[in-house]
Amino acid sequence: MANYTQLLARIADRAREDEPTAPTLDLPAPLSPELIDSAEERLGFPLHPLLATIYRDFANGGFGPGEQLFSLTDGPTSEQAVECYLQARARYAGTEWAWPEGVLPILTWGCGMYACVDCRSEQGTVLLFEPNPGDPDAAWWIDSPSLAAWFEHYVDDTGWWVKAEEGEDFDEMPPWPGARERAAT
User: Fold this and answer.
1) Helix (H, G, I), strand (E, B), or coil: what is residue 10?
2) Residue 167 φ then ψ, to 5°
3) Backbone angles phi, psi at 151, to 5 degrees
4) What is the pTM of this model?
5) C-alpha distance across the termini of the chain, in Å
6) How does pLDDT run across 160-169, given as a tens digit for each residue?
């Protein structure tokens, strides 16, 4: 198992600089291993190890870029990652918009857009779900090849979202070809 100690320390330093969107001024308390196990049972798959470490050892959401990381479950954020995933899977089942299995929404960018972690990939690929053009075959993009790299972008203010806020152009994200295949499962 990877050691995320240095990255977690950097995330903690950066999170202290953010303005919390949760109802309290403090970060939500981390989740117990039992609550994470229960969430994984409801999801039907294990969280990516870094994501589990963050929820277990740091905070139950309430920090990060944009609208900030969802609470996994039982938290103060307006959306809960487990519920968001289960609702998306149910709502779009059997349609061309079927939500891919194992792809957990962790943050909203607004306007129906989500940052999601592919919990079935070894690196925890971070995907952007962008449905607004109206084409389900062009709604999934690779935001970052790994969850660790995505958090590095957050810590260093180098993510596409920073460039977008500053009105800069940012490189095109490559499409994620696995959406249809994983949605069928």
Assistant:
1) helix
2) 80, 10
3) -70, -35
4) 0.93
5) 27
6) 999 888 887 7
Q: How many CA atoms lie within 13 A of 23 on its CB side?
A: 5
Whether the CB-CB separation of 121 and 112 falls below 8 Å is answered with no
Asked if residues 33 and 72 have their Cβ atoms less than 8 Å apart, the reply is no
The DSSP code for 133 is T
Residue 164 CA to residue 1 CA, distance in Å, equals 35
Q: Report phi then psi at 106, rounded to 5.
A: -120, -10
Check residue 2 and give its pLDDT: 76
pLDDT for 20-75, tens place per residue? 554 556 889 999 999 999 999 999 999 999 999 999 999 999 999 988 999 999 99
Using DSSP, state whether 170 is helix, strand or coil: coil
Give Cα 152 distance to the centre of its chain: 14
How far apart are the C-alpha atoms of 88 and 106, rounded to whole Å?
13
Instruction: Tell me if residue 69 falls in helix, strand or coil.
Output: coil
103: helix, strand or coil: strand
